[in-house]
Specification:
about 200 residues, alpha+beta, Nucleoside Triphosphate Pyrophosphohydrolase, 2 domains, 4-stranded mixed β-sheet, 5 helices, about 40% helix, about 25% strand
Length: about 200
Amino acid sequence: MNLLPLLDELRTIARNGLTYAQNEYDRERYARLLELCSQEYADYLDLPTGLVKARLQAETGYITPKVGADAAIFDADGRILLHLRADDRRWCLPCGWLEPNESPQEAVVREAWEETGLHVEPVELVGVFTRRPDPAWGLFTMVAVCFLCRVTGGELALSHEGLDLRYWHLDNITGWHGTHEAYARAAHAIWQRRRHS
């Protein structure tokens, strides 16, 4: 049984409660809930409970899912640009977390440049995808905002975050990172529609 979605929800309740609760008894309850979550995360990650609790307590404000931006970049033959991640050695779209004061469109342009060396322009929203906690993909809920992008300049250049960078036909890829295959296939359908319109 995957306990991560439950832990993610309990962690969120505890952190939000500690941020906004005024009643001291409620604050004690939320603190205890965070302690229990920290113990379970520590067991799962094989880390000291105190270290995990400190990381969870470091979050401030209202706890929300993490938000990332993904770039779907196709060549003239309909192949999608993917990079082989250095962290898990799986293929993914150029992507990354939004920075403070940055829109998803700005983030996707920045991430594409940082990870591929290409200047891109978002031309259409592919979709907004939710990835729930899973042992293979991550501890917390995340939201991915995926854009179909057009290359406007630059040259392919591998970053320190990747081991390889190349265009692929979708059916030739094995070893996708997380839920990136779903993003890529949704983007490919839009790319095909735009090509034939």
